[in-house]
Amino acid sequence: MKHPFSQFLYCPECGSTRFEIHNEKSKACADCGFVYYFNPSAATVAFILNEKEELLVCRRAKEPAKGTLDLPGGFIDMYETAEEGVVREVLEETGLRVEQAIYQFSLPNIYVYSGFPVHTLDMFFRCKVENAARLTAMDDVADSFFVPLAQVRPEEFGLASVRKGVERFLREKGYDGSQKTDKL
Given its phi and psi angles, is residue 177 left (phi above 0), alpha (psi -120 to 50 degrees) or beta? Predict the structure, then answer.
């Protein structure tokens, strides 16, 4: 996969073609001195369990990984906190209102959008929602449904960081993906 440096040819400040690699994290303009650091975009992912201890999963309606399983979430908007972002994304994708979002962990990822590799930092939250029975697939979600934790198969999740996050979540909750060893 190409490094993002290869896609940025002109200085965003002055337009110079002398926008050159400065170090492994940045490019600098030889004409105006502007330095741009490539940092990950912030994204959220929600673990939502219903009263039966089943995990809410979604089926992706769009590329990348169209048709595979996913969890609700997405990119954080500018001027938005991670908590506000996960609340908004859950509402947009499922129609569910988050009452509480508790940070769990983060994982780096590369999300390929329109052929461009977007480096992300995916922040995972355990979310409590109002009335999970009102679930509706919306936005970029083709379908959404609850799956018993013992039946969740991480390999069915199309995005690498979500797959790793689901594996970690199941392991920490006492599930190995094929049998229940402890109640949440």
Answer: left
Give the whole-angstrom CA distance, residue 78 versus residue 76.
7
Phi-psi map region of 89: left, alpha, beta (phi>0 left; psi -120 to 50 alpha): alpha
103-112 residue pLDDT tens: 999 999 999 8
User: For the segment 140-167, what is each residue's pLDDT rounded down to a tens digit?
Assistant: 999 999 999 999 999 999 999 999 999 9
For residue 177, what is the enclosing H or E element? none
- What pairing do the DSSP bridges indicate for beta strands 54-60 and 69-70? antiparallel
Q: Could you give the domains of the chain?
A: 8-37 (no CATH), 41-172 (3.90.79.10)
Alpha-carbon torsion 157, 160, 171, 127, what sign? negative
Q: What are phi and psi of 30, to 5 degrees?
A: -70, -15
Give yes or no for a cis peptide into 154 (omega within 30° of 0). Answer: no
Read off φ and ψ for residue 122, nearest 5 degrees.
Answer: -90, 120
First to last CA, the chain: 39
**Which residues are 35's β-sheet partners?**
28
pLDDT tens for residues 37-93? 999 999 999 999 999 999 999 999 999 999 999 999 999 999 999 999 999 999 999
